[in-house]
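User: I want to check something. If I give you two sequences, will you return the structure for each one separately, not as a complex?

Assistant: Yes, each is folded on its own. Here is the first sequence with its structure:
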Amino acid sequence: MKEQFSRTKRLVGDEAMETLYSSHVAVFGVGGVGGYVVEALARSGVGHFTIVDDDKVCITNLNRQIIATYDTIGKDKCDVMKERILSINPDAEVEIRKCFYLPENADTFDFNEYSYVIDCVDTVSAKLSIVEKATKLGVNVISAMGAGNKMNPADLEVSDISKTEMDPLAKVMRRELRARGINHLKVVYSKEQPLVPFPDDFDDGAGKTEERKGAPKKMSPGSNAFVPSAMGLIIASEVIKDLIGYKK
C-alpha cells in the first residue's frame, strides 16, 4: 500500500483500499462540483478515472474551481485535472474525454467499464441520459443538483430524487425521470431557496446597490467558493462509502 494513503487505510482497512485501487470511476463534468469530486477521489486512493469535459479554464472559474488558477487559464480542464490526479497518485490510470456528454454521443461511452458514474454536468438532457444509461446497466450513479445561486453549504443534503425540495433542477429531473420509468436516484442537493443573482454591474457609482429584481433567464447563476466544493466533497464521500460497502 502506498504511503500517501496510510491515514485512509487506518479508517477503512486493507481490503477497502484494494477495492478503491481497482475501482474505475467516471466523472462527467469537472467544474466547480466535479473538480472537488475528482480531487477527493484521487486523495482517497481510487485508481482508475475517466473524466469528461470539453471546457477550458477561464477567469470566472477562479472563485470556485479547484483546478482554476492564473497559470491554468486557457488550458483544457481535462488536461489540468489529469495532471492534478497524477501529482497526487502517479500510479493512477486516467482517461480523458475532451467532449461534452450528450445523448448523441452516449454510445461512445461504455458504462460497463465503470464502477461508479458521477453526474456533475449542467444540462438536463445530458444528466437524464447519464442517469438513464447507468440505471439500465445497473451501474451505481449519483447526480449533483443545482449549486448555483446558493449561499449556505449547511443546507446540502444527500437524498433520493423523490424527496428533494426547493431545487428547480431536481424538480425537472424528478419529473423527467419518472416519465422514463426511473423513480429513484441518489442526489446531493440544497434545500436553500435560490437567490436571485445581481446583474454583473450592480453598483450605480454612488455607493448604492440595486435591489434583486429578477435575472434574465439566460444569465449565468451566481456562485461561491464553498457550496460547489462542499457538494463535490459530499458526493465523493458517498461514492467512497458505496464502493467499499461502508455502513454506519
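And separately, the second sequence with its own structure:
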Amino acid sequence: MNIGEIAKMAGVSKAAVSRYFNQGYVSEEKREAIRRVVEETGYRPSVQAQTLRTKKTKMVGVILPKMNSASMGSVVSGILAALNEKGYQLLLADTQNNPKKELEYLKLFDDKQVDGVILAATVFTSGHKKTLKSMNVPVVIVGQRLPGCHCVYHDDYHSIYDMAALLLEKGRKNLGYIGVLQQDKAVGAERCKGFCDAVQEGGYENLKEQMVISGFSIEDGYQAMEKLMKMYKNLDGVVCATDEIAIGAMQYLKSVHVKIPGQMMVTGHGDSILAKVTNPTLTTVHFSYEESGMEAARMLLKLLDKEESAVREIKLGYHIVEQQTT
C-alpha cells in the first residue's frame, strides 16, 4: 500500500492523505474517509520516507538527571501531553546526575537524531554553554534559567525565602538549612540564597552560617541532619532543599528522639507523594512540575513550527503546603 492507493480507495487526493498523516488540515468528511481506509487496510506510513521528505523525525529528545525522581516523572507527563497532541514521539535519556552525560546526549541528539531537545539540566559548565550555543536543533531548558536560552523554570529563591520566613513567624529563632551543591543554580544556589536573605532580613544574620551541603537522597538527608545537629546546638527548625532530604532529616531526628514539630520543625520542597505519607506529614512547597513540562514542550513545538524565534523565559509560581511538621 502507498499514499496513492489510500487516496484512490478513500476518494480523495494524495495531498489530502499526506496532510492527514502530517496533522495538517483536512475536512471532517475527507478525514473520516481516510481513517476508514487506514483502519481497514492497516496501513502505516513509512517513518523513513516521511523523514526524507519532510526533513523531520517527529522525535523530541528529553534529557533528565534521573528517571526515578517524582518531580521528573511529572515533568515528563507534561511533555508527553503536549507532544502527543502534535504527533511527536519522545526519546528519553537518563544522565544519572552526571553533567558529562548531559553533554554527550546533547551532541548525540544534535546529530539530526531528533527535531529538538528538552533539557532538564543540573549544572551549566562552560562546556554546556558552548554546546548549547552550537546546537543545530532547538533546545528548551526546563527547571533552570540560563540567560540567552529558551527556558521554563520555577521561583526557587522566593519559595525557600517564604518557607524560612514562615518558621521565623512561628517563633523558631535557631534555624538550620540543608542544601545541595551551589553548582546547581536552581536547587543549590537560588534556594540557599533565599534562606540566607530570609534569616538576615528577619534579624538573624548569624543563621546564614548554620547549613550543610547534602546529596539528593533520603540517606543523604539523614547524614546531613546528623552533621547539622553536631555542628550547631539547640536547633529548633530545619529548612531542606528537597522533600527527600527533609524525610531523611526526619528519620534521623526520630532516631535520636527529637519530637517533630515540638522540638524541631522540618520543611521540604517539591510536594512529592512522600510528603503526604510521612508521619507527621511534611510541610513543603508545591511546584507545578507537570505544567513546566507542558510549557517547555509547547515552547519547543512553536520553535519547530517557526512560530517563534525570540528567546523566551517562563517563570512559574508556587505555594506552600503547610502540614504537620510545622
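Because they were folded independently, the notes below concern the second chain alone. The chain has a mean pLDDT of 91. The first strand starts at residue 59 and ends at 64.
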